[in-house]
Amino acid sequence: MREPNDPELCLRLPDHDVADPELSIVVPALDEELTIKDFVDWCHEGMAAADIVGEILIIDSSSDGTPELALAGGARVLQSPKRGLGRAYIDAVPYIRGRYVVMGDADCTYDFRELGPFVDAFRAGNEFVMGSRWKGTIEQGAMPKLHQYFGTPFTTWILNRVYSSSFSDIHCGMRGLTLDALQRMEIDSQSWEYASEMVLKSVHMGLRTTEVPVTFLKDREGRLSHHKRSGWFSPFSAAWINLRAMFVYGADFFVLRPGLALFIIGVVLTLLPTFGEVAIGGLALSLNWQLLGLVLAIVGLEGFAFGCVAQVLFDYTGRARRRWLRLFPYTRTIVISAALVAIGLAAQIPLVARYIRDGFKLIGDVGGVEHVALTGILFVITGATLSVFTLLLHAAAIASHPARATEVRL
């Protein structure tokens, strides 16, 4: 059966198809002739042991006998062009029939005979079930030492710090989620970074999440992993694009709170010497400190503003959107912005008057009015930035959640 909206996709059904599956095992395959038969058998064995009716959906881009072997074993096969690992899952979503979805690899490195913990976790009400090799078993030789002892633990630690999560193995390929959660995620990634995108969106969406132990096995004799097929640089490329996904989907972590801190420090350094040099202990806050404070305040305010917008763009629960729209309603914020600009411009008057009176020159001591002028510049920049931020915030709230445009407050 060919998909009318994408004629490059073709769904092939086995002779004995399963009706009304509760579980869908959804796995991409690329030239896995060596392992696909055993993999499909493992899936059947795992579903029987877990006492659940399920289907096996293979998204196949192979040039060998992989699809025929999968069909013969009772799996559905969605034949598609080779367009990337993430794209394979995107293509599969309309064909998934089960309420629960388990993903993985068709190379028999994850033991799909052990589906029971996933099924139990789903039936307990979890929406995202992450496999963990660290809580399970890693066969000797299954992972390169660089990945096992540095790469995976380090990137997992980064993600947990950025997202305040508690995963133990973010790169585990065997994972599960409800079909409803998968549809709401709207995965965009076409390649390896789909794995990180899925984990990150599960946090943004506030999904009920748990981890279960999995068994990770080494490649079978004669089989080369996809990374090895792609060359020595492939693991590093995959690591980089996964880190990129972490940083992009967690952009607010790097700019919102640090930006607010910089802004507060900058405002203090700028305001204190407004009427002249201020001594604090042995430290004299003068014009140079005001200039530093102005720079910090500008950079910090921009970071805070961008962080707020990023939170709204990746807000699946509505909490961040409601919080920022409540704190920055349009009319009130624009009025405050205009007032700040007006006060800032007024603070320039003494310096401009002195400049005109001295023949359009500023020579020597100008009576401290330059301190007031710098504080005024802070007010002008803050007001202007706040007005632009308000426009972008409300635009992002509407564009990212058009069905909730009524929440945008005037």
Structure in words:
This protein has 410 residues and is α/β, with parallel strands linked by helices. The chain has two domains: 2-248, Spore Coat Polysaccharide Biosynthesis Protein SpsA, Chain A (Alpha-Beta Complex), CATH 3.90.550; 251-407, no CATH class. 51% of the residues lie in helices and 15% in strands. The protein is built from 15 helices and eleven strands. It has helices at 36-50, 66-72, 85-92, 116-123, 145-163, 179-185, 194-204, 226-230, 234-249, 251-271, 287-313, 319-327, 330-346, 349-357, 369-400, and strands at 2-3, 6-12, 23-29, 54-60, 76-79, 100-103, 128-138, 175-178, 209-216, 278-280, 283-285. A nine-stranded mixed beta sheet has the order 1-2-5-4-3-6-8-7-9, sandwiched between helices. Helix 5 (145-163) runs parallel beside helix 9 (234-249), helix 9 (234-249) crosses helix 10 and helix 13 (330-346) runs antiparallel to helix 15. The longest helix has 32 residues, at 369-400. The model has no long low-confidence stretch (mean pLDDT 90).
Q: Kindly name the structural category.
A: alpha/beta
Number of domains: 2
The total strand number stands at 11
C-alpha termini separation: 51 Å
Please trace the helix and strand order, writing H or E for each element.
EEEHEHEHEHEHEHHEHHHEEHHHHH
> Strand order, biggest sheet?
1-2-5-4-3-6-8-7-9
CATH class of the largest domain: Alpha Beta
CATH fold annotation of the largest domain: Spore Coat Polysaccharide Biosynthesis Protein SpsA, Chain A
| Average pLDDT, all residues | 90
Radius of gyration from the alpha-carbon trace, in angstroms: 29 Å
Spans of at least 5 consecutive residues with low confidence: none
The CATH architecture of the largest domain can be named as Alpha-Beta Complex
Number of helices: 15
